């Protein structure tokens, strides 16, 4: 999901969220118009969303703090895994937000009914949690960036290592 080292941009998340919104709204509207009850919106859904959000930010913060030291292969692998988690959360959050916004759009015309109003509010809360998860994914992705940010610029430590390795390989006859 990296584009020239810049990471995941907002375009794929917006597209995924818009598709989820469209599919959710059309599907739930069709479902309710054919006489079926809408699936309930459960507040309990908020627990795993917030749990993943917190775990993602904690892991990304740890990567951010360990970037300052020497990069070891195990640390680099962990940072890569956290980066992939951050990008997955950005997309998942957008899809969750789209799904629950579609649910809210389906419930909105009947919002004068007390039970439907409660479900509408819950759907909006869960959509906000999806947006928060997506934003947290982008923040975590930014925390996982190498110092310097620009993939074309390499920090001095890498340049020194390259110069040192070049001298050694020439001396070794490689």
Automatic annotation (TrEMBL):
Superkingdom, taxonomy of origin = Bacteria
* InterPro entries xrefs: DUF3180 (IPR021517), MFS_trans_sf (IPR036259)
For whether the record's keyword set contains Transmembrane helix, the answer is: yes
> What are the Basic and acidic residues biased-composition ranges?
147-165
Region listing for Disordered, in residue ranges: 147-174
- Provide this UniProt record's keywords sorted from A to Z: Membrane, Transmembrane, Transmembrane helix
Q: Where are the transmembrane segments?
A: 12-31, 37-61, 82-101, 121-140
Q: Name one Pfam family in it.
A: DUF3180
- State the protein's name: DUF3180 domain-containing protein
Q: Which organism is it from?
A: Arsenicicoccus piscis
Lineage here is: Bacteria, Bacillati, Actinomycetota, Actinomycetes, Micrococcales
